[in-house]
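[audit] Reproducing an earlier prediction to check determinism. Same input, same settings, fresh worker. If the tokens differ from the archived copy the diff job will pick it up downstream; this log only records the rerun itself.
[audit] input (360 residues):
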Amino acid sequence: AALSVVATALSAATFLGAPEDAYLGDATYLTLSLGSALGAVLVACWFLPAFYRAKTATVYAAIELRIGGGAGKLCSGMFLLGRLLASGARLYIAAIPVAIVLLGGADPARTLAAILLVAGAAAAYTAAGGVRAVIWTDALQAVVLLCAAAAALWLLLGAGDAAGLFETLTKGATAQGTPKLRVIDTRMDLSAPYTLWSALLGFTLLNAAAYGADQDLTQRLLTCSSARKGAASLLTAAAIGAAVSGLFLLIGLLLWAREQTQGAATAAGDTRRVFLDFLLLEAPPGVKGLAVAGLIAAAMSSLDSALSSMASAVVCDFVEPWRRTRGQTTSVAALARWTTLALAALLALAAAGCLWWHSV
């Protein structure tokens, strides 16, 4: 379950955005891993044991048992709305590089085709295999994504003077004059994006909410045989997530150092594509193919998790209670499959809305 949690938390935005963040700035993004670890500890110690005692399929059903039906359904409904908007935006972000890589461009027509391609593929295996299929495919997708990142790192270090790159990083500074290798920012500056205090306060609460109240992530932890094993999976996922963040940040830093030492400019000056352009334009065919697979894996791992968790929330929190009051006995598995397909269509529609909004 640990790899599945990692794959769910990662997305195409992480695959491309984290290197861009380090390329433009420093390594303070890594500080957020401290908040992630603290949030994971809170959930492992207090939330998961309560969920396992409740023996419910969703987090919101446990809330319903503890507080009342109205509270549980309200929380579940808010989760569905938030996940529809967030995962729709993630699907749109993921479709852009997929369209560039597979379809040769990111114009609206090809981006829409990429949205439908990714949504259709994720919906097919999620509806067919349920949460078990999602967990196994997420684990495989996480391995592919990490192999792609490791191959890119190997290529960066092996293509030139590795010692020179690290020397450039040691002496380098951002546009704001801060060291490129700065990891901890202790300033009490509300305009700074990643400080020690935002990690300890804001990101700890954010991750406690994500791991303990977001069915998208919590669902994986509830598939373990006991709360202890679920807690172990969560803590392992937090540790792996910190290492993965460091890996992508290092790639971005090395891309910056390479530009300073070798004059390798970002294509068209677009920093959003700094990592993607490096992979597509300079990587050998084997690494390029692995990178494409990693990019698609990042896109699919977030979407299939959203589909599975949203389907479980719809069926377990809304449809099943309604069916029980009417004595209906329709197959829950068939109902979940059709719900998954309907949600995939809604997510594709939300992503298309993001595409339209960005195009006008």
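[audit] rerun output stored. Observation attached for the diff report: DSSP finds 13 helices and no strands in the chain.
[audit] end
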